[in-house]
From TrEMBL:
Mg(2+) binds at D10, D12, E170, D171. Keywords: Carbohydrate metabolism, Isomerase, Magnesium, Metal-binding, Phosphoprotein. The keyword Phosphoprotein applies. Binds 2 magnesium ions per subunit. The record marks S115, K146 as: Important for catalytic activity and assists the phosphoryl transfer reaction to Asp8 by balancing charge and orienting the reacting groups. GO terms for molecular function: beta-phosphoglucomutase activity; magnesium ion binding. This is Beta-phosphoglucomutase. SUPFAM superfamilies: HAD-like. It comes from Arsenicibacter rosenii. The keyword Cell membrane does not apply. It comes from the Bacteria. The active site is at D10 (proton donor/acceptor), D12 (proton donor/acceptor). GO terms for biological process: carbohydrate metabolic process.
Amino acid sequence: MQPVKAFLFDLDGVIVDTAIYHYQAWRRMANELGFDISEEFNEGLKGVSRMDSLELILAHGNVQLPEEKKQELATLKNQWYLELVSRMTPTDILPGVPAFFAQVREAGLKTALGSVSKNAGLILERIGMTGQFDAIIDGNKIAKGKPDPEVFLKGAEELGVQPAECVVFEDAVAGIESALRAGSFAVGLGSPDVLTKASMVFPSLENVTVSQILARL
């Protein structure tokens, strides 16, 4: 096994939880189209790109629209979402994240963000964490969403390390698959019943230590 040189992090559900804002914006859009979506349905959209999420929602509501209208709706949804996330502050950082990042720095490990969100930069700025990453890979830098490995392959490349030297932290099934396809280790944050392919699973980063993770790889 190669020594671990870098930790790569998804954003939503790992560092912050913006799922509620996505849900509120998507639900508003669905309501305007004449149907509703539940929080359970929204869970299935985690880690899925904006256009793919829109397709799933339209199929759920049995609504068919021309491509131009879909682009218009995706843009509108994003505007509503941005209105919500622009109010975020450092208090929105999930419990345990600042302490864990302090340990990562102390251990001399490199860090990268690996998110399909095109708004990742704005969110990091709002919560004051931009400076915590040596590389930021978001939806503006990739052509393929998760479970394609592109986001984590690019992260390793920008850090100057091999994918096999990286540990990826993810809360979504698609993200875990993306990490594994990149050839990295995958640490799941959430339920072990859901994130079955992860090397190890924790409820969150709270009370997790870097040494604990490295010892279990």
